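Hi R.,

Here's the chain you asked about this morning:
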Amino acid sequence: MALIPDQKQLLFQQILDTSRQQKDLWIFAYASLIWRPEFEVTESRLARVHGWHRALQMWSRVNRGTPEKPGLVFALIQGGSCLGMAIKAPAGQQQQILQQLWEREMPTGVYQPKWIQCQTSQGAVQALAFTLPKSSPNYTGVLSDTAYRRIMADRVGGRFGHTLDYAQQTLQCLQELGIKDHVLAQLLKRSTQ
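And the predicted structure, written out as tokens:
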């Protein structure tokens, strides 16, 4: 269920308050935040989170689709593990950066922002991640190859484009970083045949 504006603002304030208690503001990037973070990244580390996995299983009615023709975006969903990037924001800019991320990632209030532990070769960091519960009406559940093909072939997009370009750009970026996402690679191969 999407949050109403007052709930979204309260959640934002809670995230902001927690960020102010930490020495640094880290964000866990697992898809487009890797290649388009919206802020100056002062440090980035390859990071693994346990208990969560990247999945192209969230309906997007704003960023990658419309209410009439929703597209898909990645979500961090419980279970498994995910390799991505922990990206560090400039010091002293928590509120500004979190506000920018909020406007981008939370236009409909669907994600559940959480502080999660990221394992990096330089040590663990607490990072903000945008997660999606399986109970959300925006969680697609398991989609068939036919459904993915239909959505990928549909060139209707949202304010940031359409699903196919987004998924391809995410895979390309992951590969450039040495991150192997076999599930995504196979999904794109099957969906574009």
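Residues 8 and 106 are 8 Å apart (CA to CA).

Let me know if you need anything else.
M.
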